[in-house]
Amino acid sequence: MSDSPVNLTRSGPPETVLEDEPPDVAAAIERARALAGPARHRGLAAVVADHPQSLLGWAALGEETDEIVEAYAYFRVGYHRGLDRLRQSGWRGSGFVRWVHPSNRGFLRALAGLAASAEAIGETDEAERCTLFLQQLDPSWPPTLD
User: How many C-beta atoms lie closer than 10 Å to residue 14's C-beta?
Assistant: First the structure.
């Protein structure tokens, strides 16, 4: 069981806030994202290889590639690792996981990317499930991206 916050509110389901990415991992992702061309992909892949638990890393890899099946795979890994992290943080299959908390964004980006890439490869049922899940996790979805 984790000491991560699961907040009960009078206004609805509990809210789970994931722990922040370690600062060194977040910085490595930002350095890799600043690279140009194929070096960006190689840099992100190296960060994820060193830190496979990084939800931001998996989401960034999915967002970086132009290959839709490759993106789908990266997003799916990020999504499943995110579900594991949510459960470790006390999430029990329902409740909010909102974009407003920056630490939740790696998981939400992976889930949104999975929805989009599933749609792109014609996996409509999966795309619809992911989109509905996003709206259940954060009723204000889609966020204003920053």
Answer: 15
